[in-house]
Amino acid sequence: LMKPFHALSLLIIVASGCGPGVTDGAYPISKGYLFYDTGSNGKTIRYEERRDWSTTIVSERVDAYVLDGHRIIIARRPAEAMMRDGIADWKLSSMCEYWIIDVETHAVEQIADASKWPSVRCDMGNAYGATVEHGN
Predict the structure, then answer these.
(1) Residue range 98-103: average pLDDT?
(2) How many angstroms separate the CA atoms of 121 and 74, rounded?
(3) What is d(CA 66, CA 5) in angstroms, rounded to the nearest whole number?
(4) Which residues, other chains included, contact 12 with Cβ-Cβ below 8 Å and sequence gap of 6+?
(5) CA 27 – CA 62 distance, rounded (Å)
(6) Residue 34 neighbours by CB distance under 10 Å
(7) Which of 3, 20, 69, 76 is deepest in the core (most CB within 10 A)?
(8) What is the Cα–Cα distance from 104 to 92, expressed in whole angstroms?
(9) d(CA 75, CA 54)
(10) d(Cα 81, Cα 101) in Å, to the nearest integer?
(11) Residue 66 phi/psi, 5° resolution?
(12) DSSP code string of 47-116
């Protein structure tokens, strides 16, 4: 039988791996646009119209973005949530998409070529997580 202190210590150690990760949260980019991380592949770009209301602009999974003046350039690897043997999992596309958001006009456009921004690339070898570079 464990002493109460030891049982509590064990519970804390076991539970420390559960719940939100250290990167979970909302990170401001510019003029109401946020990088929103719910963990795993749940990485999106959202626009916060009010403090209590935001809208997804670029959905899962955002692998990288950079702020270039009044534009946010984004690399996105499309992801969809699915059930596998009763467990929620992500299916990631093998294709990388590139998007630009103009923070002044709120125009969103998919582009074919992002070679001008070499740090904005999809992480094709990584099933979970994303690389995000905060540029100038």
Answers:
(1) 98
(2) 8
(3) 48
(4) none
(5) 13
(6) 18
(7) 76
(8) 31
(9) 21
(10) 25
(11) -145, 140
(12) EEEETTEEEEEE-S-EEEEEEETTEEEEEE--EEEEEETTEEEEEE-S--EEEEEETTT--EEEES--TT
Beta bridge partners, 25, equal 37
pLDDT one-digit tens code per residue, 6-46 = 433 333 333 333 334 445 799 999 999 999 998 878 899 99
Separation CA 32–CA 40 (nearest Å)? 23
Token pair for 103: 């923070």
Per-residue tokens: 29: 């980019």
Which tokens belong to 57?
A: 């602009």
The conformational region for residue 100 under phi > 0 = left, psi -120 to 50 = alpha, else beta, is beta
Tell me if the pTM is above 0.85: no
